Amino acid sequence: MKKATAGIHHITAIVGDPQENVDFYTSVLGLRLIKKTVNFDDPGTYHLYFGNEGGQPGTIMTFFPWAGAPRGRIGAGQVGVTTFVVPQYALNFWEKRLLKFNVSVKRETRFGEEFLQFEDPHGLHLEIVAREEGPKSEWEFDSVTPDVAIKGFGGAGLLTAAPYKTADLLENVMGMEKVGQEENYLRFRSHGDLGNVIDIQLKASPRGEMGAGTVHHIAFRAKDFDDHKEWQKHVAENGYFPTDVKDRDYFHAIYFREHGGLLFEIATDPPGFTRDEPFEALGKNLKLPKWLETYRSRIEDVLTPITVRGIQGS
């Protein structure tokens, strides 16, 4: 069975205070809060989703925020850096904007591309690259207009305890194309136009430890539910151990641990985020799966109120 993912569906990270998380990704990075729900395995904790105007696959950054959570350590078995992509010629805008919010920025060149590298308030490693491919985001916040707005993911950099085994997985199981090696990195590309570049760092890193400021898992795209079932079978036939299909309300998911220690997910493009609230209201109200509605009042009492707001400098 020949399979090829279109690229990244979403990336999920662990962070600290939820209001700080909302402030940074909306007021600084200009993303839309598209879903406010809870961690289905820990309903006393938010699960927050940010993305473009509709939260299309390839744009979705999600978070489990725990106020006071101990800082993790980024290392082998994790996504080392999450890459956002912006339109061509927008890097100078973003460098100025980040500095305006007192976010330290440095520039790095990799595979002939220039990246702005920085951290979010809880230590998560992020970067921005400018590329022509991929549709512009139609979401506007403050001075972040479609001409400069984050379109979605440019890709991710993986830290792995077994880089060549991870590379084999990307190429021969996930169907990505190996496009080159440059010093310490291998690069792979998918056929999609967002979330389509994965760089594997070849240099060894200490083993990562989960906590605030680390990525929990990276999810790749399945086009529909039938394709998802095929992926589950395909992954198993190639020596990995995918979970049963999990219904996450906005997509179906399977998970497996790859040989370098990273937790991979494969998630369906449908049904999307308008299944339980209209496009205009995305992210405004706390949405719960049906089986948790009975406990709504109890859950709302536990969760810290959050709001999308402009912050100083915006």
TrEMBL record:
Keyword Protein biosynthesis recorded: no
Keywords, alphabetical: Dioxygenase, Oxidoreductase
Domain of life: Bacteria
Domain named VOC: residues: 7-131, 152-269
InterPro entries per the UniProt record, alphabetical: Extradiol_RC_dioxygenase (IPR052537), Glyas_Bleomycin-R_OHBP_Dase (IPR029068), Glyas_Fos-R_dOase_dom (IPR004360), VOC_core (IPR037523)
GO molecular function: dioxygenase activity
Protein name: Ring-cleaving dioxygenase
Upper taxonomic lineage: Bacteria, Bacillati, Bacillota, Bacilli, Bacillales
